Amino acid sequence: MRIVDTHLHLVYMDRFRYPWLADAGPLNRDWHADAYFAEAERLGVESALHMEVDVAEEDMEAETRFVLGAHPRIVGAIAACRPESPDFPAYLERIAAIPGVKAFRRILHTSPDELSQSTMFAQNLRLLGRHNLAFDLCVRANQLRIGHDLVARCPDTQFILDHCGVPDVAGKALDPWRDDIRRLAALPNVAAKVSGIVAYAGPDWTVDDLRPFVEHIIDSFGWDRVVFGSDYPVLTLTADLTRWVTALRQIVGGASADEQARLFHRNAERLYRI
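Predicted structure:
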């Protein structure tokens, strides 16, 4: 089964500034494309989208331009942005004109809840729909309701929920996460990325620890609205890429070949226009 990875982070510390990495322990180092693809290609990953890495604001545009040429298997970029800024429309026009930009993201799970609730934030995200560009929604489990409100205010913009909504997998906290996921999935303009959950599972996680979270996401969104993401290198906090891909394949092993193809590559190609 070929795979499109919709969530690859790369770190080039000699080129860009990453303020958050100072407190990120073993992640605080270079993570280059060649090292990732050396493992990924053996697993069937034929292409990847680079996900912005929350670089310093002054480096956002340069990061987007650089990663699009960092490796031939990188087929697109999800660019950093600041929709809370009145300068966003001009920034959007400039970045959207770069060949290979497929979507945008603003980190929300480490930001105040109020950031995404302003009138300007929603107005600016509605502009993405006019460009046929998606917005990756990265919120914690306890922010899913404000995420729902944002998605509902932008009905013509495609959203992709990152990391299954950041559930507490280690704590087996299925509720109220399950209800909030169902409520969000009822909106037609949002899909879900099956990614990131191993980082919230603790170092001794098993496939059965992940299974109820993955199965609920697929049950809620359906096979046409789920995509695969590695969340490399964040996943290395508790696993490696091989372990994550192997676990996910085991979880969805009972699905049809067509359903698995939708999860692993077909939906990504449609939603991100690859």
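Summary: DSSP finds nine helices and eight strands in the chain.
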